[in-house]
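This protein record is not my work; I was only asked to verify it. Where you disagree with what is written, explain briefly why. This is what I was given:
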Amino acid sequence: LSALKIAELMAEVGFPPGVVNIIPAPGRTAGQYLAEHSGVQKIAFTGSTDVGRKIVEASAGNLKRVQLELGGKGANIVFSDANLPAAINGSAFAIFHNQGQACIAGSRLLLHENIADEFLDGFLSLAGSIRLGNPLDPSTEMGPLTSLGHQEKVLAYTEIARQEGGEVLLGGERPADPDLANGYYVTPTVVRAKPQDRVCQEEVFGPFVSVSTFRSDEEAIEFANSTEYGLGGGLWTTNLQRAHQVAAAMRSGMVWINCYKRVNPGSPFGGVGSSGYGREMGFEAMHEYTEAKSVWVNVDANLPPYYPR
């Protein structure tokens, strides 16, 4: 809906017809056609990793440029020296903002074992207090998911966690409030799980966060880099040297230190691995939408002849 509103505003301010076209249509028809059409020079896609792979396959025959911003499984690392109140609030925002429906969501909490219990006490209390409701109500802090099918998928991961030996610490169900019965709501969900479990490896795309503990910086980095994804990640520490060392070691296109989900038009946005390739925003985005050209000029045309006679 926001995209359609943007189109209306563009028309109002005088954009020539055809410069920007917003076409609501199924990806398997319109998207497939755009990817296969030789007249389309570039595809920039934001969506699931599975669909991103299909776009690359469909575009291969015409050699068009493809830029992909795909799924994520963001690691959010909390070290023992972190400012815990800030880390608790920031980590809740990292996963529950927009109902967790964000590719950069901090959906894997990695807690140093020395502060894990204290952190979880505060985190579970905060997560359990988040107000669900109509997104048009200013007092609402978390709205519904996008569809019934997606709601069922997110809820299914709660059972998957249990089957793998995980512990559901909070949520994982539809809200009890009868006023929310007709919406696609899922309560904020926190599960304790092992880093190799499915709930720590697969993108859930909902208000669902896994919790694992670590003992050393090296183990935290190992766990953070243990998925196929590499879009966004965060870490919380008061040691700036550690912060930069860990950020450099994380296999991720973006890392936030003592914050999360900060975005600026001047900062490149994109991932690595199964999170895609290419960048939006920043100077890097200009390279994505332009072609380098070399032009050589011999001003006075005074060169030795190639074939002297």
Q: What stands out?
A: The domain at 75-257 is CATH 3.40.309.10 (Aldehyde Dehydrogenase; Chain A, domain 2). DSSP finds ten helices and ten strands in the chain.
